[in-house]
User: Fold this.
Amino acid sequence: MEDYVIHPIYLDFDEGYWLDEQVSWGMPSSAGIYAVHECVHNPEKRMVRPIRLLYVGKARDARTRIAGHEKWPRWHGECRERHRLCFSFGRVSILYAEDPELLEATILRAEHALIQRHQPPCNDKLNFTHPETRVILGLRSKIGVMDQDFTVWRA
Assistant:
């Protein structure tokens, strides 16, 4: 039996979605998790609706990371005709913000858990290498096609 408590990780995706041309000025310059989605965009209604998760990543500065990301061509290649790329950003619970080392480790655990759970087509296959047997993740707000609350187990 494990001799430590496993604390859930909460990610707040509360800032909405950004289309690809909005990333350079709209995406937060903060540490957290970003998600790349294939989406339907209705400019008349000013609506973006994610329909498929393409990629999950972590960043110390999401805006800079996405703007210079090497997978842009692959993301565009995954989008079907008349669909667009859109991006979302999740901040890790404030509980971890006081300790930068713990924050970075928590963001990495969250990224691995999201990739393991959703298996986005543009992420490389990833071994779940954390010492914890499981990671409990809770997502809040505009999570699109991602599951809201789940647990992943070490393979």
